Amino acid sequence: MSNLLSLRGVHTHIGAYHILHGVDLVVPANQLTMLLGRNGAGKTTTLRTIMGLWHASQGSVTLDGQDITQKPTPEIAQSGVAYVPESMGIFSDLSVRENMLLAARGARKLDDIDTDRLEWIFGLFPAMKKFWLHPAGKLSGGQKQMLAVSRAIIEPRKLLLIDEPSKGLAPAIIQNMIEAFRQLKAANTTILLVEQNFNFARQLGDSVAVMDDGRVVHSGSMAELAADEALQARLLGLSLGAHQ
């Protein structure tokens, strides 16, 4: 199995702070890789380093065989990477429609967007069609998260980087999000997803990497981690079984 993304010995400094301490991480193509770990372990910094928002001070980031370690964020985005931050990054004063049109880099007007793809997104997230002309800032938290993901997938991407998509969402909306990611997986979308909801992680993850103190301390099959409560307790301080 080929790896779409590889991080080798990545160190990241933010000002005087040394956040990542030699991260080694691979993301297999056409799979969903979960990035788990306690708060402050370095998960968000890893995503931001991949996206070029912060640059690695040492080590390498390789995407589809190309070194992107020091490339600027717009160039990384143009190479087919979309990033959904924990803050969601939507434009609150713009409508859902306008947010989607901005995200479709190849479209200057709505008619330029692939109609079949837009209808597919409406199938994943019906609220996007219902609130198409509404200001994004008026949406609920769950609807804003749906919009953030919809923006990321309005065009085909090589890689999706998604930071805690279920945070603060009601259980019914989380289940809707899980089903949407299942469909993305079925369409052979490569995803690296940071998540604190372990039931969410277990249902979706193919592979998993666990971070602690700025390093990847475990990598392997998500199913194997989900089945090994002793390993869960050692790596994460809790059991996935307690979050069913």
TrEMBL record:
The keyword Lipid biosynthesis does not apply. Residues 5-238 form the ABC transporter domain. It comes from the Bacteria. It holds the Pfam family ABC_tran. GO terms for molecular function: ATP binding. PROSITE patterns: ABC_TRANSPORTER_1 (PS00211), ABC_TRANSPORTER_2 (PS50893). Keywords: Amino-acid transport, ATP-binding, Cell membrane, Membrane, Nucleotide-binding, Transport. Belongs to the ABC transporter superfamily. PANTHER family: ABC TRANSPORTER ATP-BINDING PROTEIN, HIGH-AFFINITY BRANCHED-CHAIN AMINO ACID TRANSPORT ATP-BINDING PROTEIN LIVF. This is Branched-chain amino acid transport system ATP-binding protein. It comes from Hydrogenophaga palleronii.
